[in-house]
Design brief:
With 178 residues, this protein is mainly α. The chain has one domain. Helices cover 86% and strands 0% of the residues.
Length: 178
């Protein structure tokens, strides 16, 4: 009933099944022996690289955070130190200013004192000079008015000194001032 040439497509040929099974087994053996281990190694290397990269990144991040914190502390210390240096400089500037002002006041007082002493000395010198000139002019004027010579030096000097002393006393009294 069945002819040999007719083949049922639903039933496989046993020789093909055997050859297919042997080929499949051989393919599985080659894949398991050579390909899968290489793929597994590549997969493990990739996983290690990724996990190692993540770990290195975490370590680097921790180091960066530690360095950042250290930098912030150093910056805060530097700011504190700069503020203290600035305050110290201000205090030094204030004391230097006070020293300079004190020295300037001392110099001013010294110059004023020297000036007053010089002025008093010049005044005394002028008074002495004027007294002599005033005395000689007064005696000469009196000689012309009286018509005789008042050549007696002692008399002349005593008269002039007495006149100038009376003049000074009248200027020094409150009634003599205006």
């Amino acid at each position: 009933m069945f002819l040999a040439s007719e083949h049922n497509p639903l039933i496989p040929i046993w020789q093909e099944v055997v050859v297919g099974t042997i080929g499949f087994a051989l393919l599985c053996f080659v894949l398991m022996k050579f390909v899968f281990p290489k793929m597994n190694e590549a997969y493990e290397a990739r996983v290690d690289a990724i996990e190692g990269g993540i770990k290195r990144a975490e370590v680097a991040q921790a180091e960066a955070n530690a360095l950042l914190e250290q930098y912030r502390q150093q910056l805060a210390e530097a700011r504190t130190e700069a503020a203290s240096i600035r305050d110290e400089a201000r205090a030094d500037a204030g004391s230097i200013k006070d020293d300079i002002l004190a020295a300037a006041q001392e110099e001013r007082d010294r110059i004023i004192s020297v000036g007053r002493e010089q002025l008093a000395a010049d005044r005394q010198s002028l008074l002495h000079e004027l007294r002599g000139e005033l005395g000689s002019l007064s005696v000469e004027l009196a000689s012309r008015i009286v018509g005789e010579s008042l050549a007696d030096e002692a008399r002349k000097k005593g008269t002039v000194d007495r006149f100038l002393t009376e003049l000074e006393n009248s200027d020094a009294s409150p009634a003599g001032r205006r």
